[in-house]
Amino acid sequence: MKHIAIGILGVATLGLMASAASAGTLDTVKAKGFIQCGVSTGLAGFSAPDDKGDWQGIDADFCRAVAAAVFGDGTKVKFTPLSAKERFTALQSGEVDILSRNTTWTINRDTALGLNFIGTTYYDGQGFMINAKKLPGVNSALQLSGAAVCVQSGTTTELNLADYFKANKMEYNPVVFEKLEEVNAAYDAGRCDVYTTDQSGLYGIRLTLGSPADHVVLPEIISKEPLGPAVRQGDDQWYHIVKWTYFALLDAEELGITKANVDEMKNSASPEIKRVLGQEADTKIGTDLGVSNDWVVNIVKATGNYGEMFDRNVGSGSPLKIARGINALWTKGGLQYAPPIR
Amino acid sequence: MASQEILREEPSRGSFVNDPRIRSLFFQTLVVVLLFGSIWWIVQNVIDNLQRLHIASGFGFLKGRAGFDISDTPIAYTSDSTYGRAIVVGLINTIIVAAAGIITATIIGFIIGIGRLSQNWLIQKICTVYVEIFRNIPPLLVIFFWYSGVLAVLPAPRDSYHLPFGSFLNQRGFYFPRPVWGDGSWLILVALVVGIAMSWFVARRARQRQMATGQQFPVFWTSAALIVGLPLLAYVLSGFPLTFDLPKQSTFNLTGGFQVKPEFLSLYLALSCYTAAFIAEIVRAGIRGVSKGQTEAAAALGLRSGSILRLVVVPQAMRIVIPPLTSQYLNLTKNSSLAIAIGYPDLTATAGTVLNQTGQAVEGVLIMMIAYLILSLVTSAVMNVVNSRMALVER
């Protein structure tokens, strides 16, 4: 229903937008005074409203970081919850400025869909979860032939699932829903035997089930799921701001700049830290990007560095307790690596 | 000068600005130009904006590999099939649930509608309560009621309800034995066709005889014997070629047999129950619309109450019933798109998935709109034919 409404809205918007003059996203965002951020309809650790209705999670915080870079104020964000099916149309039609919604970066989305992914904020892979109490003895995904599998429609997960079962010559019954909550409810009610999505998602979803201890995540990871924010194609300035916000979060962690010490760090003896924080004389790094020169200070003050964001939302400081693993910095054996700010 | 000639021929109306024919021509031209102008402008803008946003367009994507699986596939479909075929699968699923729903809704609707006019107090009240409940609840809630309220609370596959004839009911759906046609089973099919043809022939002869002599013939029992008896005879003669594949317990689910999934069941039941309430009211209005004198005249001729209803009242009521019935059939077909809420792979669901996997929003929505439009137009056309057959033949 809703995705058709958005589809029609998209058609209407595309139809009615003045084709000749279109202002850049940065100017539009500054004019309206906030960033419209597309998030999920509720995935613990990534983007989910807390008991006060504030959006929490690594994806929601990323939008706050961009708002801090643009406005110097991380609260100037409005969130639009989007189902997997609605998300691309919403970004294409200009309903949201950033899509920060645990979305997998693929070539098709980068090219034919008219999006630009800015990087990988979370390296993930697809896994399976089963109810170990109802299915004793199943401890590998290769034992799942004949199972009913719950999956969200319009995702790469749905495609990987088909590929994996086909490659291993196994059969399955897909049970497909549009909304995450519908998939959760169906799995919890026993409509299907197996739940498949990104492993980080499975850990988050397990916490919301009736009896989390009964459910186990199987060891197999069947795909690469680099999750990251995306923007529309054709606006290089906005693309660079969002992309360098991500790099700034990583560089801040690498240089040891945290939410607590960012003000002290401004007077650091290290020229690199001073440069990153915009304390160099006559610096133009921020203004060349289209934001103020103390943009990194604003970002770190709003959300902390990447490591703090990770720990708070999905890592050791959260109920999910996911290890950093491949999401650690390159200096600590992980894959997170940012080009230098200079 | 043509206009001057016309002006000379007709009584003068003063300036041509006041000429009603020229005025109407002018305004009609203006409206047409504005209408097509704005359509052209919108289409042109869509094309421009799609190019500006670097979004691929066109219908070439329909030939691409779909890559996703669909739970209910009435025609052969795998993840290797094309996006176009995925949409066709969805369309067929929509047609299946709509057709099944229309038949069931009509049957329930007629029973309830006639029941509301019953002299029996209990039957009348039950039918009234039915109509008031289902007519006043949104169809989406009726679907959720069946899906989450009735079918989801059934036992897990291991503790299925065992029903007669080797069928099972559990939260994964309704399982029943699937017939396996062996060698020589074509004879059974032939016998069935012959049985139906002979029944039709018998019914025709019986009517001719009744018209000519007034004598009646037990058409119903003869037809039943022919349609059931002949295939049974063929089954025995051809050496029992028909066997049944029974549902069996496996690791996860029941395998074998034929499975009707809960998504289909709940959508089908919900649409049938919901639309039946409206059909019941239409039927009641139709019967009420037949003048009471008709019933009294029929009774005076000595017809029994069943025959009065069947031969006098219902045929006349049908003329009133069919046009609004058509609207209800169209509503049911369109309401089937609510399937998306419970994950039945209808046209909206599969085309929506294709739309999302390919990002072709404009084309995807266009395909859906055209498909529903064609379905509705076909339904209307069929009902118009039925209506013209039923209409009063005026002499």
Structural account:
The complex is a heterodimer of chains A (342) and B (395). A five-stranded mixed beta sheet of chain A has the order 10-9-11-8-12, with helices on both faces. In chain A, helix 6 links the parallel strand 9 and strand 10. Chain A is built from 14 helices and 14 strands. Chain A is 38% helix and 16% strand. Chain A has two domains: 2-123 and 227-332, 3-Layer(aba) Sandwich (D-Maltodextrin-Binding Protein, domain 2); 126-223, D-Maltodextrin-Binding Protein, domain 2 (3-Layer(aba) Sandwich), CATH 3.40.190. With 342 residues, chain A is α/β, with parallel strands linked by helices. Chain B has 395 residues and is α+β, with helices and mostly antiparallel strands. Among the domains of chain B are: 14-52; 83-135 and 263-390, MetI-like (MetI-like fold, Orthogonal Bundle), CATH 1.10.3720. Chain B is 66% helix and 7% strand. Chain B is built from twelve helices and eight strands. In chain B, the strands form three sheets. In chain B, strands 1-2-3-8 form a four-stranded antiparallel beta sheet. The model of chain B has no long low-confidence stretch (mean pLDDT 86).
Main sheet strand line-up of chain B: 1-2-3-8
- Per CATH, the architecture of the largest domain in chain A is 3-Layer(aba) Sandwich
What is the H/E order of chain B? Answer: HHHHHEEEEHHEEEEHHHHH
Total helical segments of chain B: 12
Q: Can you tell me the residue ranges of chain A where pLDDT is under 50 for at least 5 consecutive residues? A: 17-21
Q: Give the integer mean of the pLDDT values of chain B.
A: 86
CATH names the topology of the domain at 83-135 and 263-390 in chain B as: MetI-like fold
Low-confidence stretches of chain B are: none
- Find the structural class of chain A using helix and strand composition: alpha/beta
> Into how many domains do the coordinates of chain A divide?
2
CATH superfamily of the domain at 83-135 and 263-390 in chain B: MetI-like
The third-level CATH topology of the largest domain in chain A is: D-Maltodextrin-Binding Protein, domain 2
Largest sheet of chain A: 5 strands, mixed
Distance between the termini of chain B: 52 Å
| Count of alpha/pi helices of chain A | 14
Tell me about the largest β-sheet of chain B. 4 strands, antiparallel
Write down the Rg of chain B. 29 Å
Fraction of residues in helix of chain A: 25-40%
- CATH hierarchy class name of the largest domain in chain A: Alpha Beta
